[in-house]
Amino acid sequence: MATENITKSQTSLHQSEDFSFPTLPPFPNDIPTAPLVRLSLPSLRTSPEESDRFFTASKELGFFYLDLRNDPHGERLLSQSSRFFDFAPTFYDLGREELSKYDYKNVGSYMGYKGFGSGVVDEKGNLDRNEFYNIPKDDFLGISDKPFAHPNLLYQNQDLVKSYIHDSHKLINFLLSLLNSHLQLPEGTLQSLHRVDQPSGDQIRIIKSPPQPPSDQRTALGKHTDFGSLTILFNRLSGLQILPPPSLAPPGKEPEWTYVKPLPGHCIINLGDAMTKFSGGLLRSNIHRVVSPPGQQAKETRYSLVYFSRPEDKVVLKRLEGGIIPKGKDGEDGEAMNSKEWIKLQALRLRRVGVESEEERRRLWQESGRGN
C-alpha cells in the first residue's frame, strides 16, 4: 500500500477504502487528522523504500500507522486484538470494587489495576477519566520471581494473553531490527536490550474510557510521551491526539492538538523515550494525550488495547555508541537510570492521589515535567 499522510485536505484519498468500524459511529469527515504516515507490514519486509519511510517517520514524528493486512503475523495480531475488544467489556463488568483488589501502587508497582480518577492529567490538577489494567509480561510468561495475583478471568484467558505477548514482541523485534540497521549499529544491538525471556516492564494494557458528560468533556489522559521503547496501539474510537513538532505544522502556524483517526486493519505504532535516549535524540518520542472522541463517537464507551515494550530491567537508559548516533558532550546525558527504576518513576509519579488537595495535585503535575 502506498504511504500517505492523513490530513483534512487529503480526505479524498480514503474514498476507495472503507475506514469505518461497522458497529460504531463514524469519525467525522470535517475534522482534521494527524499527519501519520501509513506503512505496510508486508512491504516493510521486502521494500527498502518502505523501510526508509519507516525510519523517516521514526525521526520526524515518532508515530505511524502500520497496515497489518495480508501478512500472516499481522493477521494473527488483528485476530488477537479483536478477541481482546470482545473480552474487555466482560472484564470490566467485574466492577471497580473487585478490580481494585489488584491495584498495586501502594507496594510500588504500576502493574495491575488503575481506577477511574486516580491520576493527575493537567496543570489545573484535574483527574483522569479512564480506568485500565496492566497485564505484566513477566507474570504470564513465568519470568517473575514474585508474580502478582490477577483476576481469574485473565488466567482463564491466558492462552490469548500469552500468544498476544509473543506476537507483539515478535513485531517489536522486527521493527527494532530495522531501526538497528538504519542506525548502523552492530547487528542485534537493539534486539539484545529487549529479549522476551528477560525481566522487563513489558505489558498489555486494556483501557476503558466511558462517555464524558456533554457539558464537561475534557482530557481523559494528560499530555505525555511514552516511557519505554515502542508502543503498539489498537483502538476503534478516536480520542488519541498528538501535538506535531513545529517542523510538521503548516507554514506560519503553531502546532495544534490533532486527532488520530483509527483505521481498520491497522495498528498505531509510536516510539518512546528509551529510543530517544538510545539514539542520542535521532529518534523521536512525540507528545500525545487522550480526550473525548469527536462527534457521535463521544457517546460511546471507548476501549483501547496497548502493548508497551520496554528495555530489560537492568538496561541503563543512555546513549548507545556507534553507527550514526551522534556523540554526546561530556556530562550532557547526566546520570542514567536503569530501565526498571526509570519506568517505575514515570508510571507512578502522577498516581500519588488520595487526600491531596487540588493545589497539591497541581504541584505534582509541575514536578512531573509534563507542564513544560
TrEMBL record:
Record-level Gene Ontology MF annotations: metal ion binding; oxidoreductase activity
Keyword Metal-binding part of the UniProt annotation: yes
Pfam families: 2OG-FeII_Oxy (PF03171), DIOX_N (PF14226)
Domain Fe2OG dioxygenase: 200-311
InterPro entries for this protein: DIOX_N (IPR026992), IPNS-like_FE2OG_OXY (IPR044861), IPNS-like_sf (IPR027443), Iron_ascorbate_oxido_reductase (IPR050231), Oxoglu/Fe-dep_dioxygenase_dom (IPR005123)
GO process annotations (BP): small molecule biosynthetic process
UniProt keywords, alphabetically: Iron, Metal-binding, Oxidoreductase
Keyword flag Iron: yes
Assigned protein family: Belongs to the iron/ascorbate-dependent oxidoreductase family.
Name under which the protein is recorded: Clavaminate synthase-like protein
Species assigned in the record: Hyaloscypha hepaticicola
